[in-house]
Design brief:
By secondary structure, this protein is α/β, with parallel strands linked by helices. 53% of the residues lie in helices and 12% in strands. The radius of gyration is 21 Å and the shape is globular.
Length: 338
């Protein structure tokens, strides 16, 4: 494949053939590098599998031996020894919170028996943190890697596990320009578009948190108006069609609105405790900047209430369930926990 063809494809934002060409070009640039992957939940497993499927050499860290064969079936090289990832050119973390990433970066004798990535990675390796974490933690990790002459890029994503599997994620990336350029082929293989936020990794984390708050407050409003429609005896599906066919046609309104209209709240997806973690991080950022966020505070209280009522395993679309219960509406049989 000629370099000039790769160049034209990589700057294209179109779908279909150009995207496929861009991904093929990206794969050709990255397949000689080794990629380590830590954090193999539903999102991480789909992302790591896509990298392996594109021909990348991916070493996947696991803690429980029963996962080894499943990872191998995805084309990954499973390892329960984190030191085997230290020779990787890129190390991707896709972990649930600040504490989990901190444990990997700095180490924990109880988990790994070593000092962590900062003391183990090669000086020219890049840690790509794709977790949704606080900007302050991201700044801490960036500084630690800088001291060891390692690269650090924050690249959280918008999208759920289904989008990850379909390589339809949106990557929000921040870091030094040369490191972002090195990581771009990986982003091309994982998502449909990359947004470069600048040289400070923490800014990418702030953008991700702000976006998640837009989703959270939208779910709260969808739940409230759906409760009103149902209580007045109107058809919530017809109401959703009106919304999404006029002024409210976003993916959030369509995908989550359909779940709320159907009162379909699965025990999968983005569960209440994870959503609450992000809400708290965003509120802390608002307080630090003297920015009141009252609507986000409402969502925080809804999530706490939901967890107290036993809904902790439900997807955050179940904010619609919370709104319905507050309106005195009966829960549909089979919905939620308990």
């Amino acid at each position: 494949m000629h370099d000039e063809n790769c160049g034209s494809a990589l700057i294209s934002d179109t779908s279909g053939t150009s995207k496929d060409l861009a991904r093929n070009c990206s794969a050709s640039k990255i397949t000689e590098d080794r990629i380590g992957f830590i954090g193999l939940g539903r999102m991480g497993r789909a992302m790591a599998g896509n990298l392996a499927g594109a021909g990348c050499k991916v070493t996947a860290f696991y803690r429980r031996s029963e996962h080894a064969q499943d990872l191998a079936n995805l084309g990954l090289e499973p390892s329960n020894d984190i030191e085997e990832l230290f020779d990787c050119d890129f190390l991707i973390t896709m972990l649930p919170d600040d504490a989990a990433v901190r444990e990997v970066v700095f180490g924990s004798a109880s988990q790994f028996g070593l000092d962590g990535l900062v003391s183990g990675l090669a000086s020219d390796a890049v840690h790509i943190s794709m977790s949704t974490i606080s900007p302050s933690a991201s700044m801490q990790f960036a500084e630690a890697h800088r001291k060891f002459d390692q690269g650090y890029v924050a690249a959280p994503v918008f999208g759920n596990p289904d989008a990850a599997k379909a390589r339809e994620l949106y990557v929000i990336a921040g870091g030094a320009s040369d490191q972002l350029q090195r990581c771009q082929p990986i982003f091309d293989l994982l998502g449909q578009r990359t947004f470069l936020i600048g040289s400070e990794p923490a800014n990418a984390n702030l953008v991700k948190l702000a976006g998640n708050m837009m989703t959270a407050t939208t779910l709260e409003m969808l739940g409230e108006v759906m409760a009103l429609i149902r209580k007045r005896g109107l058809d919530p599906n017809q109401f959703l069609d009106v919304l999404t066919s006029t002024m409210f046609g976003s993916r959030v309104h369509k995908i989550y609105g359909a779940k709320i209209a159907a009162q379909d709240y699965p025990e999968s997806g983005f569960a209440f405790p994870l959503a609450l973690k992000d809400v708290r991080l965003a509120l802390a950022e608002g307080e630090a900047a003297n920015v009141p966020m009252p609507s986000v505070a409402v969502v925080r209280d809804r999530l706490i209430t939901g967890i107290a009522r036993g809904y902790g395993k439900l997807d955050w679309s179940a904010l619609g369930l919370m709104a319905a219960e507050e309106a005195g509406l009966a829960r549909r049989a089979g919905t939620g926990s308990g």
